[in-house]
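Quick start: read one record
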Amino acid sequence: MKSVGIVGAGTMGTGIAYVAASHLPGEVVVCDVSDEILARGRAAMEGYGERAVKRGLAAEAEVAEWLGRILTTTRMDELAKAEVVVEAVPEQLSLKEEIFAALDRFCAPDALLATNTSGLSVTKIAAATGHPERVIGTHFFNPAPVMKLVEIVRGLQTSDETVRRAEAFCRDLGKETVVVRDYPGFVTTRIGQAFMSEAMRCLEEGVATAADIDRAVRLAYNYPMGPLQLADLIGLDVELSILKSMEEELGDRFRPTPLLRRMVNAGHLGRKAGHGFYDYSQTRRETFTRPDTLNSLTFEVYEELERLAWNLEADEAVRVLVLTGTGRGFCSGGDVHEIIGELFKRDVKGMLAFTRMTGAVVRNLRMLEKPVIAAINGTCAGAGAVLALAADFRIFSDRARFALLFTKVGLTGADMGAVYLLPRIVGFGKATELLMLGDTIVGDEPPGGHRGRGPGPGPPPDGRGPQGVLPGLYREAAAPVHRAMRERLGDTHAQQRPLREARQARHRHHQPA
């Protein structure tokens, strides 16, 4: 594909433009009404590229090449060569109709014209053109570089060929698709709005607090995010606009609550405004909420943590991330039942996938350019302990129990970064003791953290004798599992290099000859 056009340089437009540039070989032309808006959009796309480089997802040269193919303009006629144009402007029907009428004049007769609307009628938008058969809905989700789904919406006059081309375009972007009819709210918005609206009514009627409503839904249905948290993420002004549109089509069941109207009138629009159902002005608190399993980690929780780090990087309202847990645990590591199930289904691939996902989350937390605090209020073990090590600060309560149990269960090759993180915090000697013996550290002697809110001591001396390593440990630890861990700890030079270089060195070391 030689050229893709994007109309709108806001959150969704810039995300779609970045995805197009990173997956397709041609130019991407982004159009908006002012150079100021385009400059902000350019900065957002550069931010996506910087995060991809930091997380090891792309090389700097690759990102530079992608961004070099993204052009910006305030003239819609400069989209004339585009084979596909995706409109991503605010949810106002009259604005979208005006844009599509202009695109119909400027673009080639065989160009695919797509709208990113989340709920407006694709048929009405297409009626503004002289060729409604080539107009289709491509509903991307935020953040576009991360979310896999695109909801393809077929208008009344959309042709089969247009649907086929839209599906192929989205597949080329690395997305998965579902095809739905042009009905108010489609599938995702209709179900999602009902879900969020009922949560708002529960809050307005005093059934429960916002935090308890979200917690109840997350725990009852295993959702990664509660309905009020999701509404804050989308934007309460966007929510109000969508609900008004759906109320016109589907009646009172989608009537916006008075609470939502008041919050929008007060400027409490969610995360982007720093205040919505929650206060985002300073600290984002992310709580592991599976207390019955000591907050063990499922694959879904890992995916949410990956998205969390990505979103927080661009969220200017949040300055600090705090990780903590409910009940008696901070995080006890991977969900054993899920991992065993994956092993039975996929042989060893399930374990490898779990290890890779842990590594990806650890890397994202380490690369996040905002302070990360692990508030350890209970059991912190295995992969949960590694997440705590990835944080910038660790605060231990009296109930805290910290342990790295990899050698005790025979997982020396799946330490998920602990071998490289722990020596930086407590010194090489103490790290060797903790990793090879798997001892539990209680709250009154935290490893590289501090109790309560006190300043806490610095890391212990980096000794290799009685200060940190039990006498004779290397001589006595002759079992194969300890030998393997000892080899991993043996590259003392790797402890002094940046994490990324150490990982690369380890990868080269284990490459077959």
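Residues 449-483, 491-513 have pLDDT under 50 and may be disordered.
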